[in-house]
From TrEMBL, chains A, B:
It comes from the Eukaryota. Residues 456-533 form the AMP-binding enzyme C-terminal domain. Residues 20-405 form the AMP-dependent synthetase/ligase domain. One of its GO terms (cellular component) is cytosol. This is Acyl-activating enzyme 5, peroxisomal. Its main location: cytoplasm. Gene3D superfamilies: 3.30.300.30, N-terminal domain of ligase-like (3.40.50.12780).
Length: 555, 555
């Protein structure tokens, strides 16, 4: 059978971009995007995306050029997930919460030719460009106006630094534009800088094939029905909103746009638009459950959470309100979920707290992904499936990134010749084949030779009803090497605030003594990255600054 | 970004075989297969498939060898869809309804090394092998016993011609066998002979990538939930049951096995197992609605129908019983659905008969497929989107076959350098972008220079309450060149049977005169292919044999 080779009829490149055209045919008259009082149809969205792509093309933007977008979850932001790659360009969403210096570095690193700038980020981007060295070519700027943005910076007058407005591009563009199909499915489609928790951002490049595969795999994993109503609580600039811009086009969903997550507004939008699905990091679940006006839902709302290990207590509280929570695990480097905690029917019979504990595990690979494993750091072999033996989580499959832009060494470091992608996350494999992430490699605390998972200590802290957020890091210790140090923010309006001693006592009852935090620091708020992750490296610095403990009497 | 190339961590071959291992992890204790009083779990099915693959391997079967299976939809048949490719071999399901001579030709053409034979096909295969020329190597035989098969041929005593029984292979195999992953996703995985409606069968070869893509695309298109209960009314030997053996493993469904379609038994099984999904050619819908003991369902059952254009009247009657019908279009050459009649919400408001008419159209490409079009036979350009202009349906996408085995000319003929696969089906494109198949190229009737779609005439005949089945073919005519000739079988138990004149009058009221059949032939039953399609070439021969009509007075 060796004579049978791929041919042009069957080897057409996989890409998620074709979803939009099909959905415009099927759901042309149905809502695609809802934003405040405006509603677009899929037919309109399709034509608007083609128009913008056509305008990009008329500006000379084409195959392989980088086009950046700095915007929250507005209709324009949604459209650009199609419009930019429709022009052949590589889409680079930039986190609006970054500072001007960082953005300046990213823009020079990516050599972006053009930037779409939301009105609220106008000053930020102008400042970032002012930091460009002399004689460095500057990207063209397009302003996205938004009458719903109260910030004074909002203005339809562009001029000066801006080439034109986003709506100008829509208006001037040709809705009959023939979008630029990738020549190969391995052609780059998106570039996402990981904010990570360290100071050196990396440019993750994904190809059309990878984005296609993660999108269809996530649709199947979440059993997305046709025409869901999806609320954009997850920022699209965060790993392309885990690829749901394309996923919603595939199933003809309604995208309810939202500039900024807010728990009260989320409850209002859920009721107003009969939202069926939304995504968010565990912090979103925490905010939904801790909101003073939280209320049981009158219809089921599916939440997919990922981005950090969710404490079981948070899952439990979220489900008590009527949300149906699914939990998964992925990285910017995998464009979306690679693992999800597929629910076993026999777990239904367990009490709610036990169900939450099981659901807090990351789970099994999604169906279309090839393999996951946990490797012993020394032997490089699979760890025992005992739920205890720690190792590094490794992955292989169709949506592992192509690599880091202009960083062959960084790319090589995390993808070796054995065909594994090394995540840098530490986990265990349970007897039943479910993965559980215990920590980032660098967040493991080594105390008296014992490895302590900071995530495990945190998940106990979260079961304390007074605790709002908790993070545990290593504090240098002369005797033990390191000891766990807990940073805790408390809930608003507590009648009686717990003391450090109370918290330590609470932990002693619930975990082995060596894992109990020796120090507890109360904070108004924990420092976060631009994507809402707690910045453990900041806390680690604080813990270091507190000096080493010379002696700990009890064990 | 040109430096970023595929690497072993992200370019692992796509294959549907990994679905089974994952589902054994998640749904290990849940039912995989139900057959009479036996139930298997996913954990058992996974281990049984690995055992059979291991035994195949110990017989020297490996990468690239062809292994044939001649069986109805039994548990073994389901397992072999995984077990054979697990061994690295190419899976070749053979239609049990073929005759010994044809099977003999196929086995020699495929050079099958080994055949799994269901007990009821034992004599058939022995006869097929007896037709092998002297000195031709013969495949090894494995007998699949089945205590539920009443045929006398059933016996656990194998010996003689048979190497061993299927259960022997299960028993002797190693459940820890490491299945043979494809080296490339373009490696052949299945070989399916199209019974077609002509006498020269062709060996369609699909690769792992193609089967993976059609499987995930169909899951999304049908919005398959997790753990559906799927009744195997569609023969697995018919284009691998449109790839649902792998699809059911992906979503952890329950496979209710069934040796032979029977309307009464189907209703019983639907009730007994709370069946949620099933597939079938339109003839299955006809049989379900015409069954004397048909009854409204007490829970929704989704039917996916494809394989031939369903008359709107049949769709209408099926939905009246409570079935939720989806309609799609594919070919053996595409491994499953490429097009489906995606439902537009605004159609809900139409009356049921109009809804059925809309649903009888083939529809739009499934989301992950690249393109479909209808080309004018002369200009080779897209026909007008007017619902009238006839042209050939052409396709391109990830699950178009690799090609026909040992037939480079046949392969080249249907897949040209423009990257289209030519289906040989004639259709129109409607204004709303929905495809409608009008006929096979060779089934179009050309009467007085007018093209008549036989399918269109048939769909009118089906609206006659007395008609059970109808097929219209060309009858040579001195004056008109050809005229439509209708073959009709009538329903059982009619009080008054219509005459030829009645049927012609019925048609005259409902279609242009030139389309009205000039001849109507009543038959007890229409001749069918082994896959249940009406054999138009047989009817055409009969029509020819009736001689040419010298003159037709009316027009």
């Amino acid at each position: 059978m060796e004579e049978l080779k791929p041919s042009p009829a069957n080897s057409c490149p996989l890409t998620p971009l074709g979803f939009l055209e099909r959905t415009a045919t099927v759901y042309g008259d149905c809502p695609s995007i809802v934003y405040h009082d405006a509603t677009f149809t899929w037919s309109q969205t399709h034509r608007r995306c083609l128009r913008v792509a056509s305008s990009l093309s008329s500006y000379g933007i084409g195959r392989g050029d980088v086009v950046s977008v700095v915007a929250p979850n507005t209709p324009a932001m949604y459209e650009l997930q199609f419009a930019v790659p429709f022009s052949g360009a590589v889409l680079n969403n930039i986190n609006i919460r970054l500072d001007a210096r960082t953005i300046s570095v990213l823009l020079r690193h990516s050599e972006a030719k053009l930037i779409f700038v939301d009105c609220a980020s106008r000053e930020l981007i102008l400042e970032a460009l002012s930091l460009f060295p002399h004689n460095t070519p500057r990207p063209a700027l397009i302003l996205i106006a938004d009458e719903n943005e109260p910030a004074a910076v909002n203005s339809t007058i562009t001029g000066g630094d801006f080439l034109c407005s986003y709506e100008d591009m829509v208006e001037r563009g040709d809705p009959g534009f023939r979008w630029v199909r990738p020549r190969s499915e391995w052609d780059p489609m998106v570039l996402n800088y990981t904010s990570g928790t360290t100071s050196s951002p990396k440019g993750v490049v994904h190809c059309h094939r990878g984005i296609f595969l993660v999108t269809v795999d996530t649709i199947i994993d979440w059993s997305l029905p046709k025409q869901p109503v999806y609320l954009w609580t997850l920022p699209i600039f965060h790993a392309n909103g885990w690829s749901f811009p394309w996923g919603m086009a595939a199933v003809g969903g309604t995208n309810v746009c939202l500039r900024k997550f807010d728990a009260s507004i989320t409850y209002q939008l859920i009721n107003r638009h009969r939202v069926t699905h939304l995504c968010g990091a565990p912090v979103v679940l925490t905010m939904l459950t801790n909101a003073p006006d939280n209320r049981p839902l009158d219809h089921p709302v599916h939440i997919l959470t990922a981005g950090a290990p969710p404490p079981a207590a948070v899952l439990f509280r979220t489900e008590s309100l009527g949300f149906v929570v699914n939990h998964g695990y992925g990285l910017t480097e995998t464009a979306g979920l690679t693992v999800s905690c597929a629910w076993k029917p026999q777990w239904d019979k367990f009490p709610a707290s036990e169900r939450a504990r099981l659901k807090a595990r990351q789970g099994v690979r999604v169906a279309g992904f090839t393999e996951i494993d946990v490797l012993d750091p020394k032997t490089r072999k699979s760890v025992q499936r005992d739920g205890v033996s720690l190792g590094e989580v490794v992955l292989r499959g169709g949506f592992v990134m192509l690599g880091y832009l202009k960083d062959p060494i960084g790319t090589k470091k995390c993808m070796d010749d054995h065909g594994w992608f090394y995540t840098g996350d530490v986990g265990v494999m349970h007897e039943d084949g479910y993965l559980e992430i215990k920590d980032r490699s660098k967040d493991v605390i080594i105390s008296g030779g014992e490895n302590i998972s900071s995530v495990e200590v945190e998940s106990v802290l979260y079961t304390n009803p007074a605790v709002n957020e908790a993070a545990v890091v290593a504090k240098p210790d002369e005797f033990w090497g390191e000891t766990p140090c807990a940073f805790v923010s408390l809930k608003d309006g507590l009648v009686e605030k717990p003391s450090e001693k109370d918290v330590i006592e609470f932990c002693r009852e619930k975990m082995p003594h060596y894992m109990v935090p020796k120090t507890v620091v109360f904070k108004e708020e924990l420092p976060k990255t631009s994507t809402g992750k707690i910045q453990k490296f900041v806390l680690r610095e604080i813990a270091k600054g507190m000096g080493t403990t010379s002696r700990v009497s009890r064990m």
